[in-house]
Structure formats: C-alpha cells, structure tokens
C-alpha cells in the first residue's frame, strides 16, 4: 500500500485496544469500591457499568454504518477524545450517576476503537485477516493482564487510591494518539473491493430488525422498568418475534441467506460467556482463597498467548472447528469454577475457562469476514456491538444472581450459554461444509 505505514498503524491500533482492555480490568477491581465506599448495590454497579458495554455497541453500530462516509481516520480521533473525556469523568465519579456518565464516554470510546480498527486491520492485511485479527485482539486479554497486575500492585500492595490506577490509562492513550497522528489511513476493504453500500446492507440479512433488537436490549440493560424477568413468558415471546422478523426481512424482503443473523445470535452468547464472567470475577471468586485479580490475570494471560498463536490452530481446525471446541471447553470451565474450592482448583478451573473463551471474540469477527465478506465493516461492527450490548444485559442479571443465589449457582447457570453454542456451532459447521460442497 502506497504511503501507508502498516507496522505503525497496527501498533497504534493495538495500543488503542490496550486502553479499552485496561478499562475492563479497572472496572473489575473498583466494583467493590463503589459498593463498599460509595454505598451502591451490586445491581446498581452492574447498571452503572452497563454503558461501557451498550455505549460500545452504539459507537460500533454508528461506526459500521458511517465509517465509509466519514472515513476511518475520523472514527479513530473520535475514539481518542471520547476516551480522554471518559477517563477524566471516571476520576471524578462518586455516585451512581457520575459512574454511569463516565462509562457512557468510555464505552463510546471503546466502541469507536473497534469500529475503526477491526476494518483497518483487515484492510492492512487482506490475505491474513483472521490471523491478524487474533494478533490485534491479543491486546484485549493482554491489556486485562496488565490492568489486573497494576490493580493488585497499586491498590493492594502499595495501598494507593483507585484514582491512581485509573490515571495509568493516560499513558497508552497518549501513545496511540501520537502514533496515529499525521498517518495516511487506508479505505476499508468493502470500498477497495467495489462492494456497494446497498449490497453491504443487504448482506447483513436483516439490518433493520437487528438494529431495533439491539436498541431494545440497550433499554433492558439501562432502564430499571425494562428489567427482564424470566419467570414470565414475555422475554421468550419477544425473542420469538424478533426471530420471525429477521426471517421475514432477510428472506422475503432482502432475499438472502440468514447466515449473518445466525452469526449475530452466536455472538450474543459468546460475548456474554466471556465478558460477563470476567467482569464479575471479583465477586464470583472472592471466597476461593486466592486474589480474584490474580485469577483474572491468569485467565487473560492464557487468552493473550492463545490468540497470538491462533494462526496455526485455525489453519488446522478451521474457523468452525475452533468455535465448536471453544464452546465445549468453556462449558467445562464454568462448571469447574462453580465447584472449585481452594486456590489450586480455582486456578486450574480458571485456566480451562480461559482456553475455552480464548478464541471466541476474534474468531467470531473473522467468521463474519470469512463467511459473509460483503457485510464489510458494518458486519464486523454489528457483531462487536452486539457482543457488548448483550454483556450489558447480563451484568445486572448476574449481579442480582450473585446477591440472591450466590456465586456457585450463578456460574452454573452461565454454563447454559456455551451449551447452546455447542449446538449452534455444530449447525454452523454443517452449513459451511454444505456451502463449500456446492461451490466445488
């Protein structure tokens, strides 16, 4: 690519994702501060943390729809300034509203990073997209490792305030701003390949229904009066109605396969399995005889190493094989964590869980790019946004479950999600195999 510094742009993208990741570790650490020192309930903390996820989704959806209009460079700098404001607001947070507002800006900043950098990485490395997406996403678990160790060092060992921990975010923020400054950023792959905007929308299958469904999920995650109660049939009726609407829009209106909406559904479950568990790690494993932040560092450290070497594994097992194996191992990991007693068993169980969720996020993004390439940046943004908004729904539900049923029952209930994924990925592998057979 003429006048494009691939290495510098890739490093800048990784540092931007590092900021995103460290915010996750910080939230996992300071949730106890806001319950113990500021008097919020765990459900309130879950709701105040929610914007970090649905704000992510809003920014990703907006980025997906408009990135080719406003250009990737604009979205990158939006991410920088949203991160800057969010970090400053988080430093001043003292109650529910201020914590909520800080997470709105941080979530929008995090989402803008993914909306810009996922398509940027695929544009920089068109011949090894899934491999480099996994390399890029090394910095999500890698950043959580760094953030977890810093949290333990700063707050537990040095007894410094949580504000000192949050201030660390300014370092990678300034670095990625410097590296992006003055650089030529290439067009997205969709633009360079000549796929029209209309065709991109059509290949999403049901863009209108999916967008409305995500808005509804954000309301459920944010507004207490929209709280989901699974004691009634209403949530299941709504899910069925959304599924029917997707089929009608995809098959009757757009007359196209529903493969992308199916991948979208799987992303809701993979993200909730991974992020819901790690965000509540402090409360889930507080009584297991080992520092929860150490466990978080172990989990995310394994994920970082696994993602770095993902290329050879994906080559041997293929994308659907990796996803199916991940779902099986994730189920085992959650069940083991639900019965873990003592430091040794907790570490082993956490390691199994880490291996299970390791490849979920980047491989799901890669699956969309590989199996539905014409969905372009919009497809990748929808998946990333949907994953985070699903997590924002799960967080208050998990918080309430931890308070009422306890950590072990909560972990056992969470294992239902990867069990559903096992069935879904078996179906996906059959569909992809049949598609390849038809092409041959």
From TrEMBL:
Domain Major facilitator superfamily (MFS) profile: start-end pairs: 9-436
Keywords from the named record: Membrane, Transmembrane, Transmembrane helix, Transport
Domain of life: Bacteria
Residue ranges crossing the lipid bilayer per the database entry: 49-67, 74-93, 99-124, 136-154, 160-182, 203-226, 232-249, 256-277, 289-310, 322-340, 346-365, 377-399, 411-432
One MF annotation (Gene Ontology) recorded for this entry: transmembrane transporter activity
Entries under Pfam families matching the protein: MFS_1
Bilayer topology: Multi-pass membrane protein
Cellular component, GO, one term: membrane
Key word Cell inner membrane present: no
Family assignment from sequence similarity: Belongs to the major facilitator superfamily.
Name by which UniProt lists this protein: MFS transporter
Classification of source organism: Bacteria, Pseudomonadati, Bacteroidota, Bacteroidia, Marinilabiliales
